[in-house]
């Protein structure tokens, strides 16, 4: 059995070898903090089959997939990475081929964000640890990638994930993290929309934000064989599998529009959330008011994205581009995001969203499929 407890999070988490357990909770509730217990940097207790993991750090017994893929790569290609790992562990190369396909030999830094996530998941799972911790493993993945990851996820997995709809049929037990600590809940709660909304979780259906006719054309851009047009009050969604070029297209557009990309830490320029956003209405809209004095760098990934999107809203830009804006967003953030889109439409502004997120596709006025 794997057990994890943390001095700042009341309660204890338990994981048996023959089960898959989920951790759910709002942004900032402590999900990543629990996953990061494996780093042994705080006075947490993490035991594997009764032994203190931090004494020996046996990564064949316990390993982890963190949120940022670039933080844990050993080599430029997955093929080279697995050869290094095979010097110390028995490696399942077939599992890596299932997840990466033709990208097994491609340089990590040239991969899309979705395939970067697949790279690290392949690396960790192919080494076949007894237990594995996964922090938002489905973020940045398209539908096919998410399906593949869930199909190969081994028993003995602890998964922190916002996408409750996708994991509800897979997990054996569920822990809910709140400010008061963690407690086990019935897994059927992951399908209860009222419960999800009440606890700031995802998995409920968002109403569309249609508010009438679209206005004048405010952006006209040609890219390869595509023409991107945006009108006043229009939400345009760029859809397509990982590696289809959605992020590349947004980068091409970034000289013409205000863009928010996927790595938040590379886009902060101020020492506090309040200074980064610079607008009281936007801070309150995105639930950032109570953390306005904090450095954006210490926030959870979901809170970081909300900060950047709030700044985009406050910019006054006629067209805003958002690259996978809801990747690490909780239910409260999703509701705030929908409200922001409604306000932008009312103001006659346009939005371009590159996304795989099924929860927000019905908010789009126009859908452009790439790849």
From TrEMBL:
Kindly provide the name given to this protein in its UniProt entry: ATP-binding cassette domain-containing protein
Query: What's its membrane topology?
Result: Peripheral membrane protein
Principal subcellular localisation of the protein: membrane
Does the UniProt entry include the keyword Nucleotide-binding? yes
Keywords from the named record: ATP-binding, Cell membrane, Membrane, Nucleotide-binding, Translocase, Transport
Cellular component aspect of the GO annotation: ATP-binding cassette (ABC) transporter complex
Keyword Translocase appears in the UniProt entry: yes
